[in-house]
Design brief:
329 residues, Beta Polymerase, domain 2, 2 domains
Length: 329
């Protein structure tokens, strides 16, 4: 349900597994405390009890933590603590649609509480590292929050790289194959870049607020520069995402142009094939009329059929020659 780690003011490290012990440490208010809540289905009431009874957080923030709905990234100031809603990318296979996971954080004077309903690789990696080596808890609470948020932002880069490789593959195939699979890949890349952009842009503003000294009681001036570093990472990722979106738009336009050119080629071949046949059909229809006078060869003559066929072939040859002269074929 929850994982809690505490470093006392004397430097003693311990893992807390009992709720009463957790409440006692919160009342003492010394050292540094990190509580990682994983809210599974059916465990919402237990999570609410810890957030409400142990830490006395605002009910609206608790609702955001236990609700299965994915909330947009935001930062709320509650005086003695700040509440941060961040968004991470859920693990996915290549070719799948990206899925966003919500991760909530409380930053207090000497504690950080992280809360999520699903697996977040950055938080899990950091927890495993703390279990083996408690050195990260030797710092302050704002530095701990920075480490967790920095891990979430760093996980965006592999996703961007995977999308970049997918676009390169599409660009190589779009001119040689114009099938529905290529179109689906292009549209999937566009959707994924849009989801990345929606997840990154609000978090950039959050990092900017944390880095400019807006919360001096909770974020020290010495550690604000670390949030500025995360802000710079988000700017770079956002720039890469914008470039990916432009590349995806270019790949889509190239695909549509290739399909249009292919259709034009097909129509050209059909036109070249149909026009001579249409002329022949016209002549055969006229020849089928009962005309026995004038220049038209009578239908009962021995040479009439051969003349008409030769005339048809001549007209077809002249039509093809005209097409060739105009460089239509």
């Amino acid at each position: 349900m929850f994982n809690a780690f505490h470093r006392s003011a004397a430097g003693e490290f311990q893992r807390i597994e009992d709720r009463e012990r957790l409440a006692e440490i919160c009342r003492q208010g010394d050292g540094l405390l990190w509580v990682d809540l994983v809210v599974r289905n059916g465990e919402e009431q237990e999570a609410e009890a810890i957030l409400r009874d142990v830490f006395h957080f605002h009910p609206l923030t608790i609702e955001d933590c236990v609700s299965p709905q994915i909330d947009p990234a935001k930062l709320d100031d509650h005086g003695d603590y700040i509440f941060v809603v961040a968004q991470a990318i859920a693990p996915n296979q290549r070719g799948e649609e990206l899925r966003v996971v919500e991760a909530d954080f409380y930053l207090g004077p000497n504690y950080v509480v992280s809360c999520r309903r699903e697996e977040v690789h950055a938080i899990d990696r950091f927890r495993e590292f703390v279990e083996k080596e408690p050195q990260p808890l030797d710092h302050s609470a704002d530095w701990l929050l920075h480490s967790l948020l920095d891990g979430i932002v760093d996980d965006f880069l592999p996703v961007v790289d995977a999308l970049d490789e997918a676009i390169e593959e599409v660009e190589e195939n779009v001119l040689t194959r114009q099938d529905q699979r290529i179109l689906r890949q292009v549209m999937l890349i566009k959707r994924n870049t849009l989801r990345l952009r929606r997840a990154i842009s609000p978090q950039r503003d959050i990092m900017n607020r944390l880095s400019r000294g807006e919360f001096p009681k909770l974020v020290s001036a010495d550690h604000a520069i670390y949030f500025r570093d995360v802000y710079d990472h988000l700017l770079r990722v956002e720039y890469l995402v914008e470039a990916l979106r432009d590349l995806a738009d270019g790949a889509l336009n190239t695909y549509l142009s290739a399909v249009s050119n292919r259709l034009n080629e097909v129509m050209k071949v059909l036109t070249v094939a149909v026009v001579p046949l249409t002329v022949g059909t016209l002549l055969s229809g006229i020849y089928g009329m009962n005309l026995t006078a004038g220049f038209w060869p009578p239908s009962d003559s021995d040479w009439g059929f051969g003349v008409v066929v030769a005339f048809m072939i001549g007209i077809a040859a002249l039509t093809l020659a005209f097409f060739r002269y105009r460089r239509w074929i």
